[in-house]
Amino acid sequence: MHRRLLAVLVPLAVLLVTALGVPLSVTVAEREMQETYVDRLGDVGRFASLAETALSTGRTEALHHELTRYHKLYGIPVALIDTSGTVLLGPAGAYQEAARAEPTLSRIVTAALAGARSEPSWEWAPWNDSALVVAEPVGRDSEVVGAVVTISDLSKTRERILVRWARLAGLGLLPLIALTAVAWPVSAWVLRPVRKLDTATSRISAGDLTIRADAQAGPVELRRLAESFNTMMDAVENAAQRQRAFVSDASHQLRNPLTSLRLAVESLEAHLRPEGNGRQVYDVAVDELKAMQRMLNSLQASARMESMRTASPVDLDEVLATRVDRWRALTARAGQTLAVDVPPGLRLLEPPGGLGSILDELISNALRLSDAQVVQVTARVAPGGAGAGRGNGAAAGGAVTITVRDDGQGIDVSERAKALRRFWRSPRHQNVPGTGLGLAICADLVGAAGGELRLEEGLPRPDGSGHGFAAVIALPVVPQVASSSGAPARSPV
Predict the structure, then answer these.
(1) How far apart are CA 351 and CA 476, in angstroms?
(2) Residue 377: strand, helix, or coil
(3) What CATH number matches the domain at 311-383+398-476, 3.30.565.10, 3.10.290.10, 3.90.870.30, 3.40.50.300?
(4) Are 380 and 401 in contact (CB under 8 A)?
(5) For the segment 225-276, what is each residue's pLDDT rounded down to a tens digit?
């Protein structure tokens, strides 16, 4: 995260250095070029004055010697030309060779022969390779008889500009490097508590209400935020604990009076009169007391299971090894058939309270509520975490989907979402023993492990009238741990 802060600070520093450095660099380049132009302008002005005297007196040897010596000394071709452009004095060969490479020469010379001093022909940018052409007319107004022209190679001048620019860039990078050196540890110090707070919130969203943020590190504002966060989590955890404690204590405290009441009601059976509707009222009272006892048992079980918020890896083979035989016995007693199709070696994240208890509840629903002939249990691996509800970190390698299907009555699509709510029961099952808590508790526990419980269409009914009921559990995959023999254990079914 501190990289994000640097990603903001560094461009700002670069913008600041650029805003200060670029105008300064431009000024340096322009000043260097202007000094060169002024020097050349002074030279051609002096030569033009000498040329005017030499042409008027006919003594040109000294001027020719001066022009040649200037070229040898500075490497700058300089020549006196007449109105036709012919070189009169100076190093003609060097001048003509330089003139062929300079497209602006004719324009500047024409202006000079017309009696006007031309504007500079150079470009100050270091990457431009044009020469500096300076021409000075010899004579006055309409009496111009020629011009003195210099063609200066600016490569060395541009090299000096580049060197100065490099020095300026180096000086500009110093504050940027200093800023980065300071911002990196400071941003790490500031954002480290934020990372820890983010980790804490992720674990809390997974169901661990005991985690707390670090309130001793970072700036004062972040420490206050962490303290407020911890205070809030203390209140949330205490509220959740009080709620579970209330449900558990209330159901426990009601158990004894309810048992005593049931015994008292059942003791009245011997005093019932044959005539009248006393037997019917007695049966209703006993059934209601049994339903209340089942409700209290479910509430106590819910409080116990919800208090366990830690998911752990488990081998699906081991879970089935302790359950399948009992499921077969229960389905055989009810006249049903159990089919299990589970590949070996599946390892997944087990919900709090145990995966076996959740599968027991789903099998029990299929036996009690569906009037099914076939109950099928299957498991498959869905790649890429498909089906996992909360994106648990273990789901990066995929999810294991365990499906319990039957070919019974099924449930309408409109009722599937309601079936995962607490205390909801289908109108068809009002007279069937149950509390309406089983699926809701299972969905909560599966969600606490980073998975998802959903209801879908089951197996086709034998009479072709529709489909039965299916409950699908999707849980994150955990990498398989090889046994001592180097191969995963085989499934017991």
Answers:
(1) 10
(2) strand
(3) 3.30.565.10
(4) yes
(5) 888 888 888 888 888 777 777 766 666 667 777 777 878 878 877 778 777 7
Tell me which residue has tokens 């022969």.
113
CA-only gyration radius of the chain, Å? 48
Q: In terms of pTM, does the model score above 0.70?
A: no
Angle of helix 2-57 versus helix 61-74 axis, rounded to 10? 160
Domain 209-307 in CATH 1.10.287.130? The answer is yes
The number of CA neighbours under 13 Å toward the Cβ of 299 is 20
Q: How far apart are CA 45 and CA 40, in angstroms?
A: 8
For 401-432, the three-class secondary structure string (H helix, E strand, C coil) is EEEEEECCCCCCHHHHCHHHCCCCCCHHHCCC
Tell how far CA 480 is from the center of its chain.
Answer: 28
The CA-CA-CA angle for residues 66, 49, 30, to 5°, reads: 85
Residue whose structure tokens are 């299990």:
340
CATH of domain 1-159: 3.30.450.20
Tokens linked to 282: 């007695």
